[in-house]
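hey can u run this one w/ pyridoxal-5'-phosphate bound, need the structure tokens asap thx
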Amino acid sequence: MSIFETLESEVRSYSRGWPTVFDRAQGSWLYSEDGKPYLDFFAGAGALNYGHNHPVLKKALIDYISRDGVTHSLDMFTVAKRDFLETLNEVILQPRSMEYKVIFPGPGGANAVEAALKLARKVTGKESVINFTNAFHGMTLGALSVTGNSMKRGGAGIPLVHATPMPYDQYFDGAYPDFLYFERLLEDSGSGLNEPAAVIVETVQGEGGINAARLEWLKGLSDLCKRHNILLILDDVQMGCGRTGPFFSFEEAGIEPDMICLSKSIGGYGLPMAITLIRPDLDVWAPGEHNGTFRGISPAFVTAAEALRTYWRDDELEKSTKAKGERIGTVFNEIVEAYPESNLVAKGRGLARGLEFPSGELAGKVCAAAFDRGLLMETSGPDSEVVKLLPALTTTDDEIEKGLGIIKDSVESVLAR
Ligand code: PLP
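ok here u go:
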């Protein structure tokens, strides 16, 4: 038995589907300790949008460490944090005429969500939050209370309260007009719905099965929130930083969320970092009211700023992400058509793509077959029934084709049996 099996908790999960020991990584490739290459279409669950050990970011990081730049700094002022804030403002916020203040919560996505939920409740004096079916917002108790998955919710060990789930886009396959149920409950004084402080939503539900909300649905939701004076929290932890094309995944919907949660790829290099962007008039915190030791990991600020400068001064990355995503969508549609009796469904937007199988067992077998062929991809969805692709946005066209070839072979090896 390896040290992992004897000493590490049973809670580990990814290592079960990929039973090898990884050592090195570069771009879209991970290498096991015995040198076997794996094409990585998982990309740290969206934390590695610019690939592994990106040379430009690595140089900035090594330079910073070599000159003894501050590593840990709570929320003290540092040169690295100033550079990050200035770059975020200049490269991302100002060109989009976005006016937000920046909270540095703890470094994970759940930390960014907790900050948003707490602030929404503080600002409005209301407890209730609306979430959506199949949402995923993190594993801390507040974030879990607005998460759909029953297995993950069960881990809380206490009742998860003050959240009310509503149907996400297409939950009823278009059988009812959008928001019919939600708006009716809001307007009916007999509905029993507690007045919500906020709505929290993902534009594409990554963990929930790559469910891409239509842009008009997102716009409709934003309008509904405005009509009813409900704060809109946009959780862009997984779909932000270019995953669907534009820097923010909601840009094409033309909406202006009241709060935006970012983590995963905001640090650029896979280093832990999160931010919550808030409308300036919502900034009613007392100093230290929301706190944490690891809010100022300066090496992550360095790589975050460098990533913004490298990739977001023009729209090259956005365009190539959309083109690569469409290519994957085309091949997924071909696979769907090749197995009409299997009822597969192609899903997604940008470089967040999914292939839905009738069962989690089949999807898991396809991922296992892909692993044997040197490709890493995971499953998502309530029953793990969706094969999920999140390649680094920097993955080359040749690498995309190589991965798609492996996926075709893997699907065939499972379905043609
Ligand atoms: N929000 C969304 C949309 C996510 O996809 C995730 C993680 O997958 C989280 C929040 C939680 O992030 P973390 O695992 O860093 O706490």
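The chain has two domains: 2-54+316-415, 59-311. anyway lmk if its weird
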